[in-house]
């Protein structure tokens, strides 16, 4: 819906999308992995805070702040990158599917698993398990 409608065909949007997509696949796998940990740590924290809040305003704040932090910091989230990098490819970025999957998607996904499962799920499970 974004590419077919031409929403981002003009500069500065097209140029920004291409540059960001290329930067995402040109990082080392270790950096992508670490950024993936931070991304899903914040996303899962947002979900946790959203579920734990009782008011609508509390849910909105609980969801908004961690997600905006992960976006502003520039962390790598595999689901977000499944949109953004192919969009950059459609806009002319010099990225192959192999580059996308091997250089970004796989290390980001593993980082997301560590960030969400270990840093949020396991810690909260340990803290709230009755002994």
Give a written overview of the molecule:
With 131 residues, the chain is mostly helical. It contains five helices and no strands. The mean pLDDT is 92.
Report the mean per-residue pLDDT as an integer. 92
Oligomer: single chain
Overall, the morphology is: flat
Question: Given the helix and strand composition, which structural class is it?
Answer: mainly alpha
Q: How does the major sheet shape up?
A: none
Stretches with pLDDT under 50, minimum 5 residues: none
- Share of residues in strands: under 5%
Cα radius of gyration in angstroms? 17 Å
**Total of helices:** 5
Q: How many distinct beta strands?
A: 0
**N-to-C terminal Cα separation, in Å?**
51 Å
Helix content: over 70%
Helix-strand string: HHHHH
Concise account of the structure shown:
By secondary structure, this protein is an all-alpha fold.
């Amino acid at each position: 819906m974004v590419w077919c409608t031409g929403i981002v065909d003009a500069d500065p949007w097209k140029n920004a999308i291409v540059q960001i997509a290329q930067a995402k696949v040109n990082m080392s796998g270790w950096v992508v992995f670490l950024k993936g940990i931070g991304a899903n740590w914040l996303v899962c924290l947002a979900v946790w805070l959203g579920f734990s809040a009782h008011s609508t305003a509390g849910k909105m704040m609980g969801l908004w702040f961690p997600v905006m932090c992960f976006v502003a910091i520039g962390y790598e989230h595999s689901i977000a990158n499944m949109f953004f990098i192919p969009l950059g490819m459609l806009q002319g970025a010099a990225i192959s599917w192999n580059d996308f999957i091997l250089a970004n998607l796989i290390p980001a996904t593993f980082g997301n698993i560590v960030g969400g499962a270990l840093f949020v799920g396991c810690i909260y499970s340990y803290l709230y398990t009755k002994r």
